[in-house]
Design brief:
- This protein is mainly alpha-helical.
- The chain has 13 helices and no strands.
- It is globular.
- The mean pLDDT is 82.
């Protein structure tokens, strides 16, 4: 597969793999107002990276395990007396802080912390690419399999029960998918920017979508454009690739909501 020897091609394919998984999942994050949920899960991945390096196991496995533990913990603690945004804020920032402290103790391990925080998509290898696309395919397959049930549970728990759908089970499906996306996206955009790629493309697609399916497809298209534009911008401006992708997505969001923004600022 000599055509994959070009680092920009590998970077582009890695970014596309992430956004194709993040787009449909991000729609549910937006609909359910779970932005902090994504943050908490992503931030926990840093602690998973530290544990994986300390135990000499796969970084992907460590990040996936810790992201899944955090997602399950958040799901289990929801509705236990604390406001959801408060609980998620505490858990997200605590997980990141514990992860950074744990990384500081790994004196005998060479670790580029910035690449895990902000991504290092230009360093993606062929093996990384295979893992990213395998994870993305698994997430997309999971979402497609449970699409109608997830939509019903998103609308209302009562409606879901009436339709024979267990909303707690669908929440667990989203939890698993989110942990998978976090694990495969670390290499591309890093833990601090994963939530942005989950939220911004669906938010940019929202003004143009008439159905949930349209929104998911448009979000994937906008995410793909952001990857290509962000990588080209990073190449031209010599800027960090992961943040550049998020900046491109943010610009698409501004353009898609320009009419509403103009109305909002008019006196």
């Amino acid at each position: 597969m000599a055509f994959l020897d070009d680092f920009m091609l590998r970077a582009t394919l890695a970014g596309l793999g992430v956004v194709f998984a993040a787009a449909p999942l991000g729609c549910f994050v937006v609909w359910r107002r779970m932005a902090y949920f994504g943050d908490a899960t992503a931030h926990a991945a840093i602690l998973g990276v530290a544990m994986a390096l300390a135990l000499s196991i796969s970084v992907l496995a460590g990040a996936l395990a810790m992201a899944l533990i955090m997602a399950l913990a958040v799901s289990g603690l929801s509705g236990r007396g604390y406001a959801m945004d408060t609980m998620l804020g505490v858990m997200a920032h605590s997980a990141l802080a514990f992860g950074l402290v744990a990384v500081s103790f790994l004196s005998d391990v060479r670790l580029d912390l910035m690449s895990y925080l902000f991504g290092d998509v230009l360093a993606v290898g062929k093996g990384d690419l295979a893992i990213i696309w395998a994870g993305a395919a698994l997430v997309v397959g999971l979402i497609l399999w449970r699409w109608q049930a997830l939509l019903t549970a998103t609308l209302s728990d009562e409606l879901a029960w009436a339709a024979g759908v267990n909303p707690r089970r669908e929440q667990m499906v989203l939890t698993l998918a989110l942990a998978l996306v976090v694990a495969v996206a670390i290499k591309v955009v890093g833990v601090l920017l994963i939530a942005a790629m989950l939220i911004i493309p669906p938010a940019a697609a929202r003004p143009f979508a008439r159905t949930p399916e349209q929104m998911a497809i448009l979000a994937a298209m906008i995410g793909a454009l952001a990857v290509v534009a962000g990588l080209q911008g990073a190449l031209l401006l010599d800027s960090p690739a992961g943040p550049s992708i998020v900046c491109a997505a943010a610009l698409f969001f501004v353009l898609s909501n320009l009419g509403a923004l103009v109305k909002a600022v008019k006196p």
